[in-house]
Amino acid sequence: MIERKSTSNWPVIGNEKVVEFLERSIISNKLANAYLFCGPGQLGKRLIAEIFAKSILCQDSKHKSAPCGQCAMCRQFEKKIHPDFLSLNVERGKKTISIESVRSFQHEFNTTSLLGDTKIGIIDDAADLSESGANALLKMLEEPAGKSIIILITQFPNILPNTIISRCQVIRFKLVGRSRIAEFLEQQGCSQEEALRITAAALGRPGRALDYFNHSILFDKHEEHANDFFKLRREGLCYRFSFIQKYLGTKSRIDQSNRIAELINLWITVIRDALLYKENNREQIINLNHSSELKKISDARTNSDLLKEIQSLIALRDSLDNNINPKLALENYLINL
Ligand SMILES: [Zn+2]
């Protein structure tokens, strides 16, 4: 498939249709009161939300759909001191976004702006909202204050109440093609060989690719997760349960879901690679450094076994978006591995 080059000035990789849509909304002044940016992690949802907000708040009318980066508003935005740009996340040490946090967010929205007429707030990750926090947010969405725009960001939209989703313009982010990410990495000074290796492991996520390029320790972690999977398959229940305990600790539900989703995405590629190994299709293999383990899995399992494994991993990943206890779901999967 030929990938379309972006004509936008926004410094993002991929998801051109999303960017075009948001740019057009700004130019035609057709802005919704609330947006829901959803899709897998590290696709640039937060980055795009911030550029969108900055473009709307920018004072330079010549730069209609992209921030000028020069005006007082843009400079305040860059210093993270723009009074009309608000951000709501889980507070340090807490597991959910409380009703009190939503109320103080709402209070800031209701305060008259001294600079312009639009206030913009980002909630990241919106699936972290507590039940009472979500109810308070729903009230805000039902009665928007003046010209306000709220952008909810999440990997797990189905955890949000339908009443909230139905009040948002839903923007779905997609995985980005390998060639687009590799091209970007090479522009950053990455060798062609390394760009291919990183892009294969980044699974369509430009943010992940950039992390791997800038911090080799993160790429090593990726390799470690592949090794964990091989070991989990060999070891008994005792090891599997202690792995879960160590890997998830006492993190919040959304953090646990994020971590499990990260593992599952990698594990799916391992099983897919084992299938490719069976078919002697080495060129498409992602986990190139694990050939001997891939061979073992591929020798021990039939094609239909491997396809079933992929299906159950996908089912586990989908279940994370369904308000279930993520730790129990992973335990259940590993018991039956
Ligand atoms: Zn500006």
TrEMBL record:
The lineage of its organism: Bacteria, Candidatus Kerfeldiibacteriota. This is DNA polymerase III subunit delta'. PANTHER family: DNA POLYMERASE III SUBUNIT DELTA, REPLICATION FACTOR C / DNA POLYMERASE III GAMMA-TAU SUBUNIT. Residues 261-337 form the DNA polymerase III delta subunit C-terminal domain. It comes from Candidatus Kerfeldbacteria bacterium CG_4_10_14_0_8_um_filter_42_10. It is an enzyme of class 2 (transferase). GO terms for molecular function: DNA binding; DNA-directed DNA polymerase activity. GO terms for cellular component: DNA polymerase III complex. Pfam families: DNA_pol3_delta2, DNApol3-delta_C. GO terms for biological process: DNA-templated DNA replication. Its EC number is 2.7.7.7. It catalyses: DNA(n) + a 2'-deoxyribonucleoside 5'-triphosphate = DNA(n+1) + diphosphate. InterPro entries: DNA_pol_III_delta_C, DNA_Rep/Repair_Clamp_Loader, P-loop_NTPase. Keywords: DNA replication, DNA-directed DNA polymerase, Nucleotidyltransferase, Transferase. The keyword Transferase applies.
